[in-house]
Amino acid sequence: MLRFATMILFAAAILTSARAEDLQSFVDTALKDARDKHHLPAIAALLQIDGKVAADVAIGLRAEGHPQAVTTDDLWHLGSDTKAITATMIARLVERGVMSFDDTLAKCFPEIKDMNAVYRAVTVKQLLSHMAGMPPMTDEKELPEYFSVIKDIADERAQRAALVKHYLALPPARKPGTDYEYSNLGFIVAGAAAEARTGKSWEDLVHSEVFQPLGLTHAGFGAPPSTAAIEEPWGHDEKNGKLVAIDPASPGADNPPSLGPAGTIHMSLHDWMLFAQDQSDGEHGHGKLLKPETYRELHTPIASNGLYALGWGAKAGPDGVPLLLTHSGSNGYWLAYVRIWLKDDIVLLLVANAGNRETATAFKEVRDALDKKLNQVD
Q1: Count of domains observed in the chain
Q2: 40 in a domain, yes or no?
Q3: DSSP assignment of 2-51
Q4: Bridge partners (DSSP) listed for residue 238
Q5: Exposure winner among 76, 96, 201, 303, fewest CB in 10 A?
Q6: Looking at the domain assignment, is residue 8 inside a domain?
């Protein structure tokens, strides 16, 4: 009987190994085809199933016109995928009673006497679900006003405080609590609320509440640092139909640092996977960062479109249990995408060092092919 059981386990191990080899080959081919078809500098993916790596692929160049090839350990800009990290950091503070998801802006910023009356009742939860009625801050046309507010302020935390004071005195872009409208500014305000409550910068809070507990040692803020030796990928801008590498040390290589809570984190794929896997583990009762009920609150859609939770695009089943988490992020020069099938504990991370339409199309083709391969339906 023991010998028979051992044979069954051995056969299962062979099948698991064969599946892993098949997925590695499949993802490798899918990424190569996507890069060639859409003329991308580089593209990379990390796929994990049941907490184990099923595919780990990086293909292409760190910078157009240079010979250095990307590796699976390189750093990538996450853009708005930062939002889930900001929401998780705040959730840690909520669990310790430092702040609450139901805290109002009036409570978060009592020193702002000229706050618009409509904003006074807006909550942290509404900020994190894009239901606060705040301006999107996603269009370049909005940036002149943004920069005019922070132009004479050096410190990022002080800049965020100035932005909060300025924009909360203005009328909302939409009626809070009724309509979903994606807003980078809402996440800046949420990050500033955590700063005001703790006396620490958003950057320090993310480091102490997320990076350190998860052991993320290849993570930081802004464009991934690199020199002329190009030790890390560079973002790319499309000019006259061609992708041009952007030196990370040049002005404008990333969003302004004060936008941090909405989208300035960079990370290696393996560190990002530690965060994403923890979100999945949390739904199965063994996450490292939060209590199970807090993960559930982060992941349950509450936006008016039924597709956004707290820092996550999300989909729930008829019983309200979260089934899918997803998000994409770009500062225009990079693209990053995460998808977590919670029930089956499957996590996909997909990144590229370009953020144009061709990159978005390439991502969709890779995702669709992998959905079909894994027999997953959103």
Answers
A1: 1
A2: yes
A3: HHHHHHHHHHHHHHHHHHHHHHHHHHHHHHHHHHHHHT-SEEEEEEEETT
A4: 243
A5: 96
A6: no
Query: Which of 284, 368, 290 has its CA nearest to residue 50?
Result: 284
* Domain span holding position 90: 28-226+235-373
Contact 186, 294 (CB under 8 A): no
User: Do the beta carbons of residue 42 and residue 60 sit within 8 Å?
Assistant: yes
What is the C-alpha separation between 87 and 23, in angstroms, rounded? 32
Query: Which helix H or strand E contains 352, and what residues bound it?
Result: strand 346-352
Three-state SS for 144? Answer: helix
- The answer to the question of residue 11 being in a domain is no
Q: How many CB atoms lie within 10 A of CB 127?
A: 32
- Examine residue 169 and state whether it is found in any structural domain, yes or no: yes
CATH code at 159? 3.40.710.10
Does the predicted model carry a pTM greater than 0.70?
yes
Confidence at residue 227, expressed as pLDDT on a 0 to 100 scale: 87
Give exposure, 173-202, as e/b (b: 16+ Cβ within 10 Å).
Answer: bbebeeebbbbbbbbbbbbbbbbbbbeebb
231: number of Cβ within 10 Å: 13
